[in-house]
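Long-time lurker, first post. I've been practising inverse folding by hand and with some scripts of my own, and I keep getting stuck on stretches where the structure tokens seem ambiguous. Below is the full token string for one chain I'm working on. Before anyone asks, I'm not after the true native sequence, just a reasonable design that respects the backbone. If someone could post their per-position residues I'd love to compare against what I wrote down in my notebook.
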């Protein structure tokens, strides 16, 4: 008998986002951009990896810490996306689409961190 997994929005969204980042990295390499695209690849894919790590955190504090690092990586990713757009490596359509995704992920992470901290204070 196979158990159905509970949906995990941030885990699923961060994985799909990582796939988009990988495709964007390939596109940027074809355009001859190597430095910023590698930075984008590193931080954009690490968000989901950190969220996966947090699933098996050793404590609530460890969970919050890993999610906070994922949030920092999301902030950095947003920076590289904007820089690549403003420097002319991506067009407005790509920028707006991928920016929407990273902003959504950042908001979810912020909510998770805030709720986890509140629950930690209450001893839940």
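-- Answer (accepted) --
I ran through it position by position. Result:
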């Amino acid at each position: 008998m196979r158990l159905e997994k509970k949906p995990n929005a941030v885990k699923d969204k961060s994985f799909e986002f990582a796939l988009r980042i990988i495709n964007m990295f390939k596109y940027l390499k074809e355009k001859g951009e190597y430095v910023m695209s590698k930075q984008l690849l590193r931080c954009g894919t690490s968000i989901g990896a950190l969220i996966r790590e947090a699933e098996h955190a050793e404590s609530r504090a460890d969970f919050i810490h890993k999610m906070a690092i994922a949030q920092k990586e999301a902030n950095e990713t947003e920076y590289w996306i904007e820089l690549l757009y403003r420097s002319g490596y991506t067009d407005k359509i790509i920028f707006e689409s991928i920016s929407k995704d990273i902003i959504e992920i950042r908001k979810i992470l912020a909510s998770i961190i805030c709720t986890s901290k509140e629950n930690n204070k209450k001893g839940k």
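A couple of notes from the structure itself: Residues 92-122 form the longest helix (31 residues). The chain has a mean pLDDT of 93. Happy to go over any region you disagree with.
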